[in-house]
Write a structure and sequence with these properties.
CATH topology of the largest domain: Rossmann fold
Protein name: Universal stress protein
Number of helices: 8
CATH architecture of the largest domain: 3-Layer(aba) Sandwich
Shape: elongated
Strand order of the largest sheet: 3-2-1-4-5-10-9-6-7-8
Structural class: alpha/beta
Helix content: 25-40%
Number of strands: 10
Pfam families: Usp
Order of helices and strands: EHEHEHEHEEHEHEHEHE
InterPro entries: UspA (IPR006016)
Organism: Gordonia mangrovi
Oligomer: single chain
Family: Belongs to the universal stress protein A family.
Length: 294
């Protein structure tokens, strides 16, 4: 049982490392922090540039290890962790291969530094991981800071309807919560999309449609409760709004919480396939997101 963190020295901040450490501490498992450096060409050469390249990669790895070691001093000694250097042509492929090699429980990374603070922006590496990772992928918002006690406080599972996909997500979220002794919350999003203004059908009609979506989501929650998929006493909420940001803002989020998402559907080319709805949830989430593979 291991949490793998992909760490890039000087880029993306410490959010991914904090997310990985929080998960490892909450799950009582160990932590592996990996930095990927470019692998040299296989053709041997005595050219000076090859020696300079090797020296540069050594320096990058050493700086990353020093940053990680300094940060990890804030955690109790009971949290077992180690640093590893991976030489590979691509970061995503290196992390995927190592996740398989160590039988990782999950892989954690940081959002790119391109977005606003508190926002998740998927870079090229994150996009590949989201589509190819054999294990769940967690990504932290830019500037993310875990709680002072370093523990995960709540898992919020996002579902749509009461079908097999929602039931699978809830079952896996419940399993995670049982391992961490943390509470589960179930959320459905009722979001009114963009429209002409003034809308041809009228504002009242659009509000009625949103109200119907909210009612349908609440009915789905009751069905899942009646079937025992959701445990009695579990907090079930509907996040509604005229956009995803408004919907997220309509419900409470706490420090140390993660949003649990399932992949949209099976894909021949990918273990994790994100539909447009899941991508919007990731971009607007104020808390780290954990995306499940299929």
């Amino acid at each position: 049982m291991t949490i793998l963190v992909g760490y890039v020295q000087g880029e993306g901040g410490l959010g991914g490392l904090q997310l990985g450490a929080m998960a490892a501490e909450s799950l009582h498992t160990d932590l592996v922090v990996a930095t990927v450096v470019p692998k040299p060409w296989t053709t041997p050469s005595m050219a000076k540039v090859d020696a300079e390249f090797a020296s540069w990669t050594d320096e990058v790895a050493a700086k990353a290890e020093a940053e990680v070691a300094e940060y990890m001093t804030i955690y109790p000694p009971e949290l077992s962790w180690r640093f590893i250097r991976l030489d590979h042509r691509t970061v995503a492929s290196a992390l995927i291969e190592h996740a398989r090699a160590i039988d990782a429980d999950a892989l954690a990374i940081s959002s790119t530094g391109d977005g606003q603070l508190g926002q998740i922006v998927l870079g090229s590496t994150a996009n590949i991981l989201m589509h190819r990772s054999p294990v769940p992928v967690g990504i932290s918002p830019r500037g993310y800071r875990s709680p002072k006690d370093g523990r995960l406080t709540r898992v919020t599972a996002a579902v749509s309807g009461s079908g097999p996909e929602s039931r699978s997500v809830i079952a896996r979220a419940r399993g995670l919560c049982d391992r961490m002794d943390a509470p589960l919350r179930v959320v459905s999003f009722a979001v009114r999309g963009g429209a002409m203004y003034p809308p041809l059908v009228g504002l009242g009609t659009e509000d009625d449609v949103l109200s119907q979506w909210k009612a349908q989501s609440a009915d789905s929650h009751r069905m899942l409760l009646d079937d025992g998929v959701i445990a009695a006493g579990t907090d079930c909420v509907v996040a509604a709004g005229r956009g995803y940001r408004e919907a997220f803002d309509s419900i409470e989020w706490i420090d140390g919480e993660v949003l649990f998402l399932g992949s949209a559907r099976d894909s021949v080319l990918a273990q994790v396939f994100l539909g447009s709805r899941a991508s919007k949830l990731i971009r607007h989430s104020p808390v780290p997101v954990l995306v499940l593979p299929r």
